[in-house]
Amino acid sequence: xxxxxxxxxxxxxxxxxxxxxxxxxxxxxxxxxxxxxxxxxxxxxxxxxxxxxxxxxxxxxxxxxxxxxxxxxxxxxxxxxxxxxxxxxxxxxxxxxxxxxxxxxxxxxxxxxxxxxxxxxxxxxxxxxxxxxxxxxxxxxxxxxxxxxxxxxxxxxxxxxxxxxxxxxxxxxxxxxxxxxxxxxxxxxxxxxxxxxxxxxxxxxxxxxxxxxxxxxxxxxxxxxxxxxxxxxxxxxxxxxxxxxxxxxxxxxxxxxxxxxxxxxxxxxxxxxxxxxxxxxxxxxxxxxxxxxxxxxxxxxxxxxxxxxxxxxxxxxxxxxxxxxxxxxxxxxxxxxxxxxxxxxxxxxxxxxxxxxxxxxxxxxxxxxx
Length: 370
Known about the structure:
The chain is 40% helix and 17% strand. By secondary structure, the protein is an alpha/beta fold.
């Protein structure tokens, strides 16, 4: 485990040594943004560190409603609700939608929060092959009597692939299904305005698509949120045990998140720079014959058949001043991954240094099957 002694940016300090960081999820570089820090400090001075209550008792502040209004405006939805952790969003949303489905179809590479979020009384749970809409269609046809809910990551956290939402939506229309997109890694990244996977596929107006989202990645803050129509949001506020029983988000987090949303809406150049940086790295990785499946997202996995080779590359990069994490947390990927993640803050020099080291590694180890 790497233990840092600094803030997180395009650089990080570990054991008091500075490294170029190509890890984490700080896609728009907002986690250490001065405006977010200023908002958090001002909020502590006015409100303290904790509202010390759940939202439905005395834990709702004017800044909570301000944030929810900002999120609704950003997402072009009727309303929004914020809660303590993005990980809980799928459970909250799937519970709020109960009554509309009796079977769940999820991508086999789905994030663990999706697995954990399926209500325990839903017995019909089917995994379809990764991003394979032909297999999904065959499962839907075999279970025509079930009311279907299809759930998938928008951007897959290990591979950086974008779910084929356009094809999934076509199937959902044919089979009268609803769709839930875990857009944790897509919010702020995909779409002309950063509103996520539905915007990327021009499906924002689709009435059968719902998103669960987080403020802890591209938004640079913390906590989960759901933006949707009034009926679903009111159901969450009135019936969700997680929402009702949880202490509300702390003042500095809420104010920082509001500042983040304003920046994302006002400064599209951050997203433009992010995509320029990721294109350079994806092109470089492919030219060096590393196995990757990322095309258009800031998650760029280097996939190895050998754990030893993946660990050796991690150590080689670290010795030379660059951190690209070796990912070991649970997943269904049948390979070992060094996951490059890109930020809008990365400089040309940083990217060139990374590419030069990867090329040096390739010259020494060849371009075999790893």
